[in-house]
Amino acid sequence: MATTTTPSAQGACPQKAAPHFPEQVTGMYILARALKNIGIETVYGLVGIPITEAGYLIQGQGIRFVGFRHEQQAGMAAATDGYLTKKPGVLMTVSSLGFLNGLTATANATVNCYPMIQISGASDPTMVDMNMGTYEQLDQFNTAKPLVKAAFRCSKAEDIPSAVARAYRAAVSGRPGGVYIDMTTPALGQIMNREDAEKLFYQPVDLYSPVIPNPESVDRAVELLTSAKHPAILLGKGAAYSQVDHKIKQLIEKYNIPYLPMSMAKGLMPDAGPLSALSCRSTIMEKADVVVVIGARLNWMLSFGRGKWNPAMKFIQIDVDPEEIDVNVPIAAPVVGDTGLALDAILAKMEGKKMSADPTWVPSLQAETKGKDAKFAERLTANKDKMPMNHWTAIGAIKPIIESNPDVILINEGANTLDDTRDAVNMSLPRHRVDCATWAIMGMGMGSMIGAAVATGKSVVAIEGDSAFGFSGMDFSTACRFKLPVTVVIFNNGGIYNGIGVPMDKTSDPAPTTLDINARYDKLGDAFGAQTYYVQTPEELAKALTESIASKKPCLIDVQLAADSGKESGHIGYLNPAPLQDITV
Ligand code: ADP
Ligand code: MG
């Protein structure tokens, strides 16, 4: 096999070898071909040394290359693509800082069980290992390792197709997550005879193999579920990710079981459906006796399955990851397996069996829902004409528009903007809501919006707090360059939580939470040729959002709120070690 290698530790000054086309190819070409071969349709990234040519070669393979302004946003896009398609989203970055910027998104993907692959150009590892101070020197492989599901390093071009296939398997199998490939400069620059390179590509067999649950675990779960007096189903984003919506619907509707969705499972079953217990979260926690947890974790978002939860509660948990079982609370009936296969087995076993549910259980939840929803509607009505607008005024204008465009994907981040939008806007289709998820991080908005639009071809609306938007705002320009059907709605209350923070001392600097209540975010959109709006009333907002969605073009709406709208930390103020008003010097 004729190969020529580029720089090594010994030959400190690299000789740039050029391949003789068409009989020779580079490692970069092999990478592009390997991605194409395995079915990757889009690469999200930001090029520079040493991956610029790889970006062109990827385009040359007919793969879409979506070039971003910041790697973290490209990574958020890849992760959202992965979540919505069940195929790994691919992020490509340069070395050192580009790698680190991207790694934030890949770590977030791992935490959220989104399948993605980060491929970063990397310096020659023989030089990194000897700490020679080479260009952008960083031991990226070992830096990434603890934050990802799997990591591979390609030091030779021959390894690239296998690394790509194995990274794909690792990203989607079992609990999905982020995978890292360290794509070293020697591997990228290596020249091979095309004929030899062709022999490296293979079609991996059974790339995604769903886990079948143990039949005994299914028997135990069915026994428990059919004996429940107050059964309920808790749906998480793992359930939404699984894309087995009809099986979930069958279990719920055939056996008349109320369901409670986590935020990204909203719409998996309609939020406003007759068995939706969305407005009865506390009652489910306190009064249900058997809860089937499907693709959700009993973590901080669910009070760790303790506290408020009925102490006599018995959990059935369907999860692909055995290590998720018994975390925080003992699980009476674990069903370890893929949601789809687990539900097939459960539904088959349930056939002909009767539920023992208390006949008043569902009607009582429906009555509670009616009362709670009426109260919620009153809150929207009470704030309808507030000037300047507060969050509820603005959300009151947005709610009917999003609800009457159910196929629009909603991206949502912020503090109050997140909490209030999640609570107010009903979703009716699965996987149409992506938010800041398990880590409750800010700065996923523009990337996720772009990833959702590219992966699905659907219209996307991102509802963003002004602070949240600030993390990723520049990548709105990416949506503009790619002419995506996206609308960004910025709730500007002039700050983190709100815009009325008071500085601690006599400094003339703004308070740590203060941003800019007078900022005209719409002008940022103007700079990139977007259709933009600055709105001060609910009527203007409703008109702008309706027009924006209909235009199928990049749009940005700056929504002027009052600076005192919103409270510190939104709904999770209790997590602050000390509330602001208690701080003394
Ligand atoms: P939420 O935040 O909505 O509660 P989490 O991200 O906390 O959701 O939990 C998702 C769970 O779904 C994880 O425990 C993960 O292992 C599980 N999961 C992901 N994919 C599948 C699948 N295909 N089948 C079963 N469980 C899955
Ligand atoms: Mg704000």
How would you concisely characterize the structure shown here?
With 585 residues, the protein is of the alpha/beta class.
Report on this structure:
With 585 residues, the protein is an alpha/beta fold. Helices cover 38% and strands 16% of the residues. It is built from 22 helices and 20 strands. It has a six-stranded parallel β-sheet, sandwiched between helices. It has a six-stranded parallel β-sheet with strand order 16-15-17-18-20-19, with helices on both faces. It has a five-stranded parallel β-sheet with strand order 11-10-12-13-14. α10 packs across α14 (339-350). The longest helix is centred in the middle third of the chain and has 22 residues, at 361-382. It starts with a strand and ends in a 25-residue tail after the last strand. The protein binds adenosine-5'-diphosphate and magnesium ion (MG).
Uncertain segments are: 1-14
- Strands in their spatial order, largest beta sheet: 4-3-5-6-8-7
Q: How many individual helices?
A: 22
Q: Nearest-angstrom radius of gyration?
A: 26 Å
Helix content: 25-40%
Distance between the termini: 71 Å
Proportion of residues in β-strands = 15-25%
- Would you report the number of β strands? 20
Apparent shape: globular
Arithmetic mean pLDDT: 95
The ligands bound in this entry are: adenosine-5'-diphosphate, magnesium ion
* Largest sheet data: 6 strands, parallel
Estimated structural class: alpha/beta
